[in-house]
Amino acid sequence: PMTPKNRDKQENIGFELEAVITPLGTLDLPVNLRIPLSFGYSRPKDLLTKKVLYSSNNQYTFTFGLEAELKMGLNIGFFGKYVKNYDDPASPYPDIYVSYLVLDAKIHYRFKIAKKDARVYIHLLNLANKKYAVQGSWGAYTMPGFTFMTGFEMKF
């Protein structure tokens, strides 16, 4: 992994693309649709040996979603993330680290309390209960399976 001591001995080439498609445009409808998309590519290599480094960098990452926002304050979305990592033979999680697809669903309801913005939400993360691991400069660790979160937020 890249550290302050070896930063000048590594090179990371890559790019990221992001787009949000709004198929209904600016039409005055009771619902607005958004399709967020992103793609990223990364290739870290050792400048001395010219070999690809197995590091915290993903080789490819593709995210996608479909979100419906209703004027009454309800927001419903489905999102996914596909990650393809460099195949690191030394990884402690070879089967679940190399590539994975995670799907999530989120529901938010926005409203006002005493003229203050508030929202309640439910997040359903990793709907398919996919086993996967992420790796970074801190090491590798497995991620949780299906997760249910709910909450309340209020802005003051």
Keywords, separated by commas or semicolons:
mainly beta; two-stranded antiparallel sheet; 156 residues; 9 strands; seven-stranded antiparallel β-sheet; 60% strand; 1 helix
Concise overview:
The chain is mainly β and 156 residues long. It has one helix and nine strands.
Task: Itemize the secondary structure elements and their pairings.
Elements: E1 10-21, E2 31-46, E3 58-70, E4 74-85, H1 94-97, E5 99-113, E6 116-125, E7 133-136, E8 139-142, E9 147-154
Antiparallel strand pairs: 1-2, 2-3, 3-4, 4-5, 5-6, 6-9, 7-8
Task: Give the integer mean of the pLDDT values.
Answer: 85
Radius of gyration: 20 Å
Count helical runs: 1
Strand segment tally = 9
Assign an overall shape.
elongated
Give the termini separation: 42 Å
Would you write up a description of this structure?
By secondary structure, this protein is mostly beta strands. The protein has one helix and nine strands, in the order ββββαβββββ. It has one helix spanning 94-97; strands spanning 10-21, 31-46, 58-70, 74-85, 99-113, 116-125, 133-136, 139-142, 147-154. Strands 1-2-3-4-5-6-9 form a seven-stranded antiparallel beta sheet. The longest helix is centred in the middle third of the chain and has 4 residues, at 94-97. The protein is elongated.
